[in-house]
Design brief:
Strand content: under 5%
Largest sheet: 2 strands, antiparallel
Distance between the termini: 16 Å
Order of helices and strands: HHHHEEEEHHHH
Number of helices: 8
Radius of gyration: 38 Å
Structural class: mainly alpha
Strand order of the largest sheet: 1-2
CATH architecture of the largest domain: Up-down Bundle
CATH topology of the largest domain: f41 fragment of flagellin, N-terminal domain
Helix content: 55-70%
Number of domains: 2
CATH superfamily of the largest domain: f41 fragment of flagellin, N-terminal domain
Length: 301
């Protein structure tokens, strides 16, 4: 024990300092290679809880934004299909007008045109996006069946007939933010759609009767106006969703910046620190080598 009695305290302190610097050096090297302050939450220290809260909020808003985008895609697709229905209603009005124009039009021709139009109209209401029937009110099956045996057995000018509808009355909604739930979409039994299908049936019920065709024409005009309103509502819903997605994106960018400030290392600062630690370690190794070579015998012999 004579060899180290005189240097025991100094060497012990030096070794502890060397271990501390080596640990700090290893941490700095990890920060330089990963770009992160630490690869564990524990290594972040007092900011851990703040980081966890920020990451939780980021995850929640990300889900809300994704769901809002899905809703927006559905609304946009519904808008396109409603536009097609408006085109079909316009075509039906033109066909009926042609039959009322004074020139005799064979009833079978008009019936064929209107039947094709009604089938295409129903197909628009049965539109699917990602295996979801958009006008079904949440139902998992096609919402419209104009060939249903209970539908249009009796055509009435004033009495609505929604027996073609196979869906539900549920209106879709999305949690667009923590304080905002947005309802969106429309179901296939809405008044404008029902009137259009009833106008098709009314005209086809007696395609050569002028009074019947006039009633069907007026009913189709009402349907057109209501469907146009439906498209305007869908446009408004799309705008609301799009604006909220933009707001969510701004929040996510802010949160990402706050998270980065906590998690990411300042690489310029780390590089300087590594250089300083290398210099300190080299000097400390040199001192440690000399110190550990000393012994009491050298001084008393």
């Amino acid at each position: 024990m004579v060899d180290r009695i005189s240097t025991y305290a100094q060497s012990g302190a030096l070794l502890q300092e060397l271990m501390r610097m080596q640990s700090e050096f290893a941490t700095s090297i990890m920060q330089e290679s990963s770009g992160l302050v630490s690869d564990t939450y524990e290594g972040i220290g007092s900011s851990t809880q703040k980081l966890l809260n920020l990451e939780s909020e980021y995850s929640e808003i990300s889900v809300q934004s994704e769901n809002s985008q899905m809703a927006l895609d559905r609304v946009n697709f519904m808008y396109e299909n409603v536009g097609s229905m408006l085109d079909l209603a316009t075509s039906a009005l033109a066909d009926i007008t042609g039959s009322l124009g004074g020139t005799a039009v064979d009833g079978s021709y008009l019936t064929a045109e209107l039947d094709q139009g009604a089938q295409e109209f129903a197909a628009c209401l049965n539109a699917e996006l990602d295996d979801v029937y958009l006008f079904a009110g949440g139902a998992s099956t096609a919402p419209v069946d104009i060939d249903d045996v209970d539908y249009a057995l009796v055509v009435d000018l004033v009495t609505p007939d929604t027996e073609y509808y196979q869906g539900s009355d549920y209106i879709a909604q999305v949690q667009a933010s923590s304080g905002l739930t947005i309802e969106y979409g429309v179901t296939a039994d809405s008044s404008g759609f029902e009137k259009a299908l009833r106008a098709y049936n009314l005209a086809m019920s007696d395609p050569e009767d002028e009074a019947t065709l006039k009633d069907a024409y007026n009913l189709m005009k009402e349907a057109f106006e209501e469907i146009n309103t439906i498209q305007t509502i869908l446009s408004s819903q799309a705008t609301t969703l799009d604006n909220q997605i933009d707001n969510n994106t701004e929040e996510l960018n802010l949160l990402d910046s706050l998270i980065s400030n906590i998690k990411e290392a300042d690489l310029a600062e780390v590089t300087v620190k590594i250089a300083e630690l290398e210099t300190q370690l080299e000097a400390s190794y040199a001192v440690a080598t000399k110190l550990l070579q000393l012994n009491l015998y050298d001084y008393i012999k």
